[in-house]
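R.M. (postdoc): so does anyone remember the format we settled on? I'll just put the structure tokens first.
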């Protein structure tokens, strides 16, 4: 467990963390009342989970072009998360019970259950891909999305909307 404990607003890569280092793929990242200072994700991030818990009133912002990969779950009960223009991949469930979540203008992938029971979910201009490997029941809580892809085992997906050139982009999320 690595808790954001910075005394001033700062970057994910150089901020103060309770574990003593920038969180890695083995770390569960927690934002809570320990510090309410804003955190800017300024470098590609790969972590086990992210929890924005009650008591956190700051903003966690994903810089433009910076990918965030969460192997497990993303949970938000307070504060604000603002996605950037790069991908946000959540390998497990996505739970929004409070605060404000502003989706990436790129692609947001959710590999488990989407549950919005409270808080504000803003889809923005990006694409949300639901790609759970098992049967799941989502609780959208009346949320709307800009573009949604439900990928429950699709091997490949090509829009054929490149406009020119000789190659196609696989949009299946794999």
């Amino acid at each position: 467990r690595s808790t954001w404990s910075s005394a001033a607003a700062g970057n994910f890569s150089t901020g103060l963390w309770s574990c003593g280092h920038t969180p890695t793929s083995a770390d569960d990242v927690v934002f809570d009342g320990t510090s309410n200072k804003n955190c800017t994700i300024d470098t590609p991030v790969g972590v086990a989970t992210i929890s924005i818990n009650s008591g956190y009133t700051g903003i966690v912002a994903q810089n433009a072009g910076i990918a965030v990969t969460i192997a497990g779950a993303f949970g938000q009960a307070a504060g604000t998360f603002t996605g950037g223009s790069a991908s946000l991949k959540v390998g497990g469930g996505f739970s929004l019970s409070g605060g404000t979540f502003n989706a990436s203008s790129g692609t947001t992938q959710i590999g488990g259950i989407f549950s919005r029971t409270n808080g504000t979910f803003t889809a923005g201009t990006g694409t949300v891909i639901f790609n759970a490997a098992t049967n799941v029941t989502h609780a959208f809580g009346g949320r709307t999305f800009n573009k949604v892809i439900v990928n429950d085992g699709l091997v490949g997906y090509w829009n054929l909307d490149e406009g020119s050139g000789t190659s196609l982009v696989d949009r299946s999320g794999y």
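R.M.: ...and that's the designed sequence above, right after the tokens. Also worth knowing: The CA atoms of residues 45 and 165 lie 32 Å apart. The mean pLDDT is 91.
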